Every structure is written in structure tokens, then in C-alpha cells.
Amino acid sequence: MGPGVCRDNAYIFGMNILGIETSCDETAVAVVTDGAPPAIRANLVQSQLAEHAPYGGVVPEIAARAHLDHLDALIREALAAARIGFDALDGVAAAAGPGLIGGLIVGTMTAKGIAWARKIPFVAVNHLEAHALTARLTDAVAFPYLLLLVSGGHSQLLVCAGVGKYHLLGTTLDDAAGEAFDKSAKLLGLPQPGGPSIAQAATNGNPRRFPLPRPLRGREGCDFSFSGLKTAIRERVVAAAPADAQTIADLAAAIELAICDALVDRTAKALRWFRDRYPQGTAFVAAGGVAANARLRARLAALAGDAGLGFVAPPPALCTDNGAMIAWAGIERLRLGLADPLDAPVRPRWPLDPKAKAR
Ligand code: KG4
Ligand code: ZN
Question: What DSSP assignment string belongs to 4-45?
Fold first, then answer.
């Protein structure tokens, strides 16, 4: 046990929390120690890319089995990297949703087993909340802040008003931004995940050679849409076939720019609204895998500057799925006494703002 530890769900300063992430196709485990500042003592990610590659996308059943195969060893490695044993853990947090149900069951059952055996608290973490709170782990951002959460499954603009207090301003009407990157990469014959490979291919490309639409640009509200863009991308790629290296670079540059433009347009609206409604707002934060994109980060930083807000985006390895964000969300909840019972369910769907209209 860490210093000042109290195991009946009261605030534990200096607690060591194990974080387990298995909601999609990364098996990830971390150890984070609470403190000022908190310390990431181990943060390991084992990707399943090779297992899914022959199928051109994530196969839920394969993902669940791969999590089961890798998780125990990864937990042992993470504890070894953190130089602690199970006896030094003060709590264990696992992603309990949203995500693929098989993987969520593997992660939460493992976490519950450890919690039961060690008699330490278990926290069922919302994966989206973990992305949302990562900027507080890395940069101690205070509430309330505006968040752009862009990942493989979600594209949302939210006000983060407190732990468990999220107000949805906009979401995608169809595909997520990361999905647009991933599907585009597939069309171009580039490897998964699509975001990094499109970004890399775009480096030598001319984004103006292939014009693409900017869905919902200038429209009311802060929602996103990427399905029309996806169709336009498919048409351009088919028309350009067989594409040489320069054509692939030009297409990649056009795709990256179109997705970034769409995100920037909607975010600019949200920032104006946030400045008016939350004069005490502390920052504009970007999170989720797509927030690892360097060109997007530069544009978002400029937007925040124009709105007079600081811009915070966690380092790229903490934007994409990882165990540290789960451990940190566990710490945030345990600080408030919010442990979960060992019969807490997994939730394949789990919106951050349950009051928002389901879309
Ligand atoms: O947050 P994340 O790791 O997993 C989910 O919760 O979905 O996000 C994964 C998504 C993928 O669609 C991937 O292509 C995208 O994030 N991504 C990127 C970059 N790195 C990862 N997109 C654009 N640029 C990147 N550098
Ligand atoms: Zn994620």
C-alpha cells in the first residue's frame, strides 16, 4: 500500500493504480502513481494489427481471444517495469465500455479478479472519459474545458465540467474521423491504422490536386459528418487508379486536409460558443487517436490561440489507446470515492453525456 492509503474508497494519496485497456484492438496495461504530479510508472501497449491484417479490419472474436492470450503477460511486464508487485497496488481500473464486448469482458474480469484477490477497489472506466481526462494527467488542466474527442469510433465536442460531468455539443452523424482515415488508407492500399499512414504519405503530397468536399462546413451546430467525404474519396481513388506514388501522396494529402478542415470548422464554432458560455473555461483540449495528428494539432493550437484559450493535447502515445489513461481515470474516480462493485457490467454503448439526444 502507498502512503496514507485507506482502502474503503476514501482518497488515497500516492496510490498505485493498475489500468487495463481492452476495448478494441490494443491490449494495454499501465501503472500510474497518484501525486503532484502523477507518475506513469509503466505504460505498455500490445497491438493486434498482425492478427487482424488478413481480414482488413478488426474482427471482434479475434480481438477478444488475442486480449485473453496477451493480457496476463502484459500485466506481469507492466508491474516489473514499474518495479512493484501485486501487493503494492491500491486499486485496479479497466475499460468497461464503450467498445467490443468480448474484449471488455476479458479486461474487466481480469481486473475484478485482481481486485478480489488483493482486496483493493475496482473501477469500471468509461473509455471515452479516460480520453477526456488524459489532459489532467499530463497537464493538470482544471475544469471546465472544451474537448475535441476524435478517435476510431467517436468524433465529439464536449464541455468537461467535472469527473462524470460532460455536456455534448456535437457528435458525428455517421462515421468517426478516425474511421475516415482508416477506410481511406484501405482504399489507397496503405497499412492500418490509417491515420499515421495517411499522414506519412501526405508529407510529399499536393493537397490541392484532388478537390474533396468539406461536409457541413459553415452549417449550424457542432455536429460532424464524414460519410459523404468517404464516398467522394472512393470516387477519386477509383478514378485515379492505377495510382503511382505521387498520386497516392497527393490523394493522402487531400484526404488529411479535408478531414482536418472539417474538424477545424466545427471546432471553431464550439470554441466561440464555449468562450461565451464559459468565461471561466480553462483550456481547449484535444484527445483520442486522431489528436495524435501533427497537422491537426498545429491547426487546433492556432484556433485556440484565436479564441484566447490555451491548447492542450497529450503526447501522441497518450492520445491513442493506452493503459495510463484508464489508470488515471481510475485515480480520478477513486479520489472521489467512486469505486465500482465486482458485479459492475460491461457497457458496449456508454455515452459520456446520457442526457444528449441519442444519434
Ligand atoms: O483512440 P484510438 O487509439 O482508438 C479508439 O478509441 O478508437 O484512435 C484510433 C484512431 C484510428 O482511426 C487511427 O487511424 C487514428 O486514431 N490515428 C490517427 C493518427 N494516429 C492514430 N489519425 C490521424 N493521424 C494520426 N497520426
Ligand atoms: Zn480510444
Answer: T--SSSS--TT-EEEEEE-SSSEEEEEEEE-SSS-EEEEEEE
